[in-house]
Amino acid sequence: MAQEVVLGIDIGGTFTKIGLVDQSGEIHFEDEISTRGYETIEEYIAALHAHVMKSLDSLETTFLLLGIGVGAPNGNYYEGTIEHAPNLAWKGKIEFVKLMEHQFHLPVVVTNDANAAALGEMLFGDAKDLKNFVMITLGTGLGSGLVVNGDVVYGHDGFAGDLGHVLVYDHGRQCGCGKKGCLEAYVSATGIKRTAYELLAESNEDSEVRKIPFSKLKPKMLTAMAEKGDPVAIKAFDRTGYLLGRALADTVAHISPARIFLFGGLAKAGKWIIDPSKRSMEDHLMTIYQNKIDIVPSALLSKNIAVLGAAALIWKKLNSQ
Amino acid sequence: MAQEVVLGIDIGGTFTKIGLVDQSGEIHFEDEISTRGYETIEEYIAALHAHVMKSLDSLETTFLLLGIGVGAPNGNYYEGTIEHAPNLAWKGKIEFVKLMEHQFHLPVVVTNDANAAALGEMLFGDAKDLKNFVMITLGTGLGSGLVVNGDVVYGHDGFAGDLGHVLVYDHGRQCGCGKKGCLEAYVSATGIKRTAYELLAESNEDSEVRKIPFSKLKPKMLTAMAEKGDPVAIKAFDRTGYLLGRALADTVAHISPARIFLFGGLAKAGKWIIDPSKRSMEDHLMTIYQNKIDIVPSALLSKNIAVLGAAALIWKKLNSQ
């Protein structure tokens, strides 16, 4: 029997991940192609199309493709565009949905990766019963998807939910966005690295971090060091969690979510990042919000949430028609 | 002919304002009673009821009362309660809607005053065409109502939208809520006063503020001084606007509103507060949000927005049935 699926696509700076996802969230097939090496967006989409069609032909099961969901940096749900994405080769405002529909002849929806992750958690993860929650993705940067009254918040222009760029310190660290003092410059894979080296400068404490060049340090190495009691690694998590919790308290004051999910490499540090975040959030919350809101790892932490989320996006659209 | 109206009620710490409001937002009758002097909430509600009935009987027009909307500090839309309101005599969690419906035998809805103001702007003001906007009320404190996808954001527990208590400075000024460094300790009628006296301490500049005791200074006096070029008054507005704009940039990163409305005594300062807020907001926004979002005074600035907003709340509910 033929299996109905959608195509979930996660466009990253280096790789584009794809997956065939059924309505229950099962990934029947996954693969990736390079995002780089195409001069124009049209060439990239043609290559993506060819790859998907070849894969579909080669699979034993007959898959019926109902639509395509895409998570992409600066993906705009309303406009169907990808706008000024810092990590992609194609500059300006790309009419992505239009080009994709022209190539695939299927309904296509796009949003940013963190919004897709929030939808993934809502359809296939631990947010199935939640109408108000927050998804924080801790990758190279910090992304966020906000869900209010059961819907992802896109805002007036489709760009809502960009908590990576709320301010934590006036005149603080230089951020990739051009501003200074943004949350993502402190709380992200690169943010915690910067903090670890800041700590090396501040104290004379012995630490494994002193033996590793900045360019080689990864969050999972800090987790391993923290497990062994490395004081710099532990303090780096504490300081990172302090700022994440402080920022999340402000987010709670905005939308009062039932739960906050963490996803991404840094979220895999588990208690090392979650405990100080939770402590700091509670310390910064008003009484009426205290002791109600959990910070938890995403249920999809070990899965490809970006592909699942992109698939959730199009499933949600197909089911609401 | 009889005129259909709802009763809008704005419960303040000192006075309770009431108004009979038709569906177009016209206030046909307004009045106030004291909020103080009643030992129990039941006595207060009985007095309120008696006053409304007497007023209705005394009016020439026959008014048909369809429902009651209430704006109250810490009013919880979901629960129909007023919970731990700092300015009211009745402590704990009050089953306000239940008690009101028992007394009036009419449908009653409650929310906090800033959410009511947002609804007032949406039904009767300049937000009629807007699905995503922010209302900031600058009174003794700072309240906020957030509108996303055409609905006020109540959040998981009914307490969303409390921007008065987002953090502006770690270990900053003591706030009335018990925390330190909250926005409302800087941006509000009392916040700008504190800033004005901080400025007196910082510099030796001549200023009218030096002649006025703290307890007597009002925002409108600062506006009058600013108009005459008083450097301390102007700097107090600049510093207040700087922090408001900085906080609003973070709010934009959360929900990306089309417009931001200001209401309340401090909002009447007009350009003195709006211009520095706008400058600072733009300076703190990411490029994708810049030059799209206006900060404007509420269209209802000279009217009783709290009563109109409370009326809007119940009109919205009646019309959605």
Which spans of chain A have pLDDT < 50 for at least 5 consecutive residues?
A: none
- Enumerate how many helices of chain A there are, as a single number: 8
Any idea what the radius of gyration of chain A is? Answer: 20 Å
* Major beta-sheet overview of chain A: 5 strands, mixed
Give the % helix of chain A.
25-40%
CATH homologous superfamily (4th level) name of the largest domain in chain A: ATPase, nucleotide binding domain
CATH fold-level label of the largest domain in chain A: Nucleotidyltransferase, domain 5
pLDDT average of chain A, as an integer?
93
Biggest interchain interface, per-side counts: A-B, 46 and 46 residues
What is the end-to-end distance of chain A? 25 Å
- Give the beta-strand count of chain A: 13
Helix-strand pattern of chain A: EEEHEEEEHEHEEEHHHEHEH
Task: Write down the domain tally of chain A.
Answer: 2
